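I have been asked to look over a protein record a colleague put together. The record follows directly below this note.
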Amino acid sequence: MKWFRRRKAEDVTPAHLPNAEEAAQRFWERWFELVPVVSAALGDGEPHRVEDELKELVNALHPDLVFSLEQGHMAMYALVITGQEDPRLRPYTDAWIKAAPPSDMVWEFHDSVPPVPDPTEVIVNLGEVKMRLGDYRVVAQVDGDVVDVAVYHPALADLTDQQRQTMTFLPLDVTLGERLAGERLRRVETAQLEPEGTISLLELRSLVRELAGVSDG
């Protein structure tokens, strides 16, 4: 899984933002022209060949959106474009996913980070640091219909502040799915030392899904 983050909002000052439906239509017109090149690059294991084109394509939809290319759940590849639960960006992701073509054997599309089947098998490479999500431990405190969590991994202390923030939230998103995490997680903190009473990411998934009335099957 490789994420491509857009520039910060303060770095982008377009004269105006396009109509969401029109922007989505232009995105898919350009996507159909570009997808053979994207698929070939991914098939060759060289996604960097199309990074610039994809960044330009997503930037035209909205400059604050984040996108990723992933292994699909049902298809070979997945394209995820997300506003990271920012309500300003929801009209653009809504219009984008509404206009998306049906999934096929090669491509599927998501407007939020979907949960991976088993996050404990995921390894994230950050330069010299490799972080196995199976090594994460979480303290979860339920308060009504929401949960406060403290996230611990032994390698978090070796990261920069930005990396540490990313690697605090990323395991939660891929475990719960971005939308469920946004709905049910209230306070998220990074634990400097391993707390007592921790649970695994899979145990957190079961807890939050039960709280939300979502099947864990």
In short: DSSP finds six helices and nine strands in the chain. Residues 140 and 207 are 9 Å apart (CA to CA). Residues 1-16 have pLDDT under 50 and may be disordered.
